[in-house]
Amino acid sequence: MIKKPLMALRDVVALPGVTAYIEVAKAETVSAMEAAMENDQMVFTAAKRDAESSDVNMDNLFEVGTIAKVKQIARMPDKYVRVVLEGEKRAHLLSLESTDEGYILANIQESEEEEDVWNNADILSNHGEPTEQLKRVAMIRQLKQLFREYCDRQGKMGQQLQDMVSESIDLDRIIYMITANLPIHYHLKQGIIEPDRIEDRFTELMIVMERELGILRLQGDISEMVKQQVEDNQKEYYLREQIKAIHKELGEDDAESEADKFERKLAKLKATDKVKKKIKEEISRYKRISSNNSESAVIRGYLETLLAMPWKKMSRDNTDVAHAKEILDADHYGLEKVKERILEYLAVKKLNKNGTGTIICLVGPPGTGKTSIAKSVAKALGRKYVRICLGGVRDEAELRGHRRTYVGAMPGRVINAVKNAKVKNPLILFDEIDKMVSDGRGDPAAAMLEILDPEQNKHFSDHYLELSFDLSKAFFICTANGTDTISRPLLDRMEVIELPGYTENEKFHIAKEHLWTKQLAQNGITKQQLTITDKALRTVILRYTREAGVRGLERRIASLCRKAAKVIAQEDTKTKIRISDRNVKEYLGKPVYKPNAANEKPEIGIVRGLAWTSVGGETLEIEVMSLKGSGKLELTGKLGDVMQESAKIALTYVRYLVQDQVSEDYFEKHDIHIHVPEGATPKDGPSAGVTMTTAIYSAVTEKAVRADVAMTGEVTLRGRVLPIGGLKEKLLAAKEAGIQEVLVPKENSRDVDEMEAEILDGIELKYVQKVEDVLKEALA
Predict the structure, then answer these.
(1) 648 alpha-carbon distance from chain centroid
(2) Are residues 187 and 240 located together in one domain of the fold?
(3) Which residues of the chain have pLDDT under 70?
(4) Do residues 642 and 578 both lie within one domain?
(5) What is the pLDDT of residue 222?
(6) Could you give the residue ranges of the DSSP H alpha helices within 309-335?
(7) Widest pairwise Cα distance in the chain
(8) Could you report how far apart the first and last alpha carbons of the chain are, in Å?
């Protein structure tokens, strides 16, 4: 047992063969070092179990410590003393003694170290090495290999440590050197030096090194991942900065990123919190996705659409009824029902500003001004006008939009129209709503139900937007040539307003007040250069056109203006041309239609009926001939199923009427041939029933039918005359053909009461209830 001054270490373990630099401030520790310097410079160093405690006793000191030599003491200005120690041997602490000088003496016993077998170079070169020597060689190699990997991960500083260890061939020295340089807790270092057997110290060090290497590997992986991410971010930042520099060099101000633009637009957007949240999420996704990714373009298009939608932006309606009436009267002649309905809407809007949108369906032949009146309504209201043509639309996605899972997905036509209008309350015109087509890809008419229903379109769902949009503030106007092809549920959502064909007088005023002025401007002609007389204009209407609308009339007027423009351009701009009833043929050629298409005298088996078509009313001449035969009924003229059934009913009722006027076997020995001229034109409808009955009766009884009479009506098997539709168009056609008397079903009298006096002027109406009434008036 030997005695040495005690140096209690805090957070530090002194190791044999390793130089340690320690700063101390405690008086008893400084006294112990001074005492050592006066003797053999040797002290016993032991680490405290509890580094925070100031107690120095057997319970608070580790049993195993190191005998170290004090190489140097340097006093610092701040009362600290810097000490350089060089560890020499391991020793066990047995007891402690206090001294009068103020320091503590440690009674210690040196550890018995195993014999060092490596100092003899001959042993290393001996090929017959003992087993213990081989074991030591293996330990040294394994330690050096682990430490090499550890140093490789430490960079340049680790390389210096590796060089120091690699030169040593002493296992104990290698263990102490490695332990001293590991950044581990001092308790772990104490655990390495405590075992007396060198194999145990080796094992403890291996466990600690494997743990440290595992930590370093994880740190390396994390560092590599972070480094890669930082490099990617730096690369992206660098590239963006380059793009900005290029924009700047090109003189383009818009150098900010698209994501920044979207965020700036979002800050200004007026929308609900739900919409803003959705847009914010999409912007975050857009930032994370590379611009080379195909999904980037999809998200960009989606964001542009969402940010362009007028979620809360509305235009202010002009609810001045007098102003609206002035505009409608200036733009359109006639159409009193339509104008009245629009003015009613404005009056209600003035009283109830929060009212929902209105759905009006204008039904009438082509050229009657359905589309143009929608523009005038938008002008009168002060609303944005957008037109959606539904002709030939067969895919529901065209209205509802495509889901964004599809390539080339886009919003539906309705949302696009609202986006282009830039307000949520535009006037939307659904043109040709009767021309939509249903097939296997969907039923667009069913999609229109939600769009046009005021109770549903508050939350209209477009597949592309994935957000509901309020369409209830929009003003919808639909146009159609007829309601037959419109589905009943869809028709129920709309308020139908009929636009029948124009009378001759209405066409004259439209041509004079609107069409003539319009075509003069389009052809670059002034009113002084070209004039037309009222009589010439009426001649163009009667002799060169036959239609319900005025589209054909406008083409004729345009033809007059072009031919006049040719003359003016060739001769002199000061040339004045006057078109009259006498010279209109020079510009338009021979008249296309006769002024009076009625028959000149009563004839047997020829009766003039009245028909409704999508382009207005027409007179329909039906011819019947009775010939000897075998009792067949022959039908020609491309008749539809309804007209064929009407012909059979008419023949049956005529057989009932003439059973006392002809022989009993008359119909067995005679063939009845019914023909409707213009055989290439398809014809169908129930309103030819009375006409066929009268014609068959006339042919069978050989009684002539008056030439100045026309008729319309459906016939039952019992001879009753049923009401028909399109009476106004039919009466206009009769008037154009020069018919003086028209036989009309009694139940259609309510339609006559609503007609303008101009339509009925020059025509005498006779109401009929049975076929007998028809025959009484029609037969000569």
Answers:
(1) 56
(2) yes
(3) 113-130, 155-164, 167, 240, 244, 247-248, 250-257, 291-292, 355-357, 439-441, 595-599, 614-616, 679-680
(4) no
(5) 86
(6) 321-331
(7) 166
(8) 160
Q: Looking at residue 714, what is its pLDDT?
A: 92
Counts of helices then strands in the chain (DSSP H, E)? 29, 26
**Nearest CA among 441, 13, 259, 673 for reference residue 22:** 13
Choose one of 588, 613, 647: the last residue of a domain: 588
Mark the binding-site residues for ATP, compressed into ranges. 364-371
Model pLDDT, residue 651: 92
pLDDT of residue 700: 92
d(CA 289, CA 677): 71
* Boundaries of domain holding 41: 2-110
Contact predicate 537/508, CB 8 Å: yes
409, 402 Cβ separation under 8 angstroms = yes
For 692, half-sphere exposure in the C-beta direction (CA atoms, 13 angstrom radius) is 35
CATH number assigned to the domain comprising residue 369: 3.40.50.300
Residue 92 and residue 51 share a domain: yes
Name the DSSP letter for residue 515. Answer: I
Binding residues: 364-371
Instruction: Give how far Cα 190 sits from Cα of 29, 110, 346, Å.
Output: 20, 17, 96
- Looking at residue 255, its pLDDT comes to 38
Question: What is the pLDDT, as a whole number, of residue 115?
Answer: 53
Same domain? 646 vs 666 = yes
Q: What pTM was computed for the model? A: 0.59
Catalytic residues: 687, 730
Q: Is 70:37 a contact under the CB 8 Å cutoff?
A: yes
Q: Verify that 459 and 349 share a domain, yes or no.
A: yes
pLDDT at 595: 56
Burial of 721 (0-12, 13-18, 19+ CB in 10 A): buried
Q: What are phi and psi of 127, to 5 degrees?
A: -75, -20
Is residue 612 domain-shared with residue 741, that is, in the same domain?
A: yes
CA dist., res. 654 & res. 695, Å (int): 10
- Say if residues 469 and 460 touch (Cβ distance below 8 Å): yes
Quick one: 157 and 227 in the same domain? yes
750 falls within a domain: yes
> What distance in Å separates the CA atoms of residue 161 and residue 738, rounded to the nearest whole number?
122
Q: For position 123, what pLDDT does the model report?
A: 42
Please give the DSSP secondary-structure letter assigned to residue 617.
E
Indicate if the alpha-carbon torsion angle 657, 663, 664, 670 is positive or negative: negative
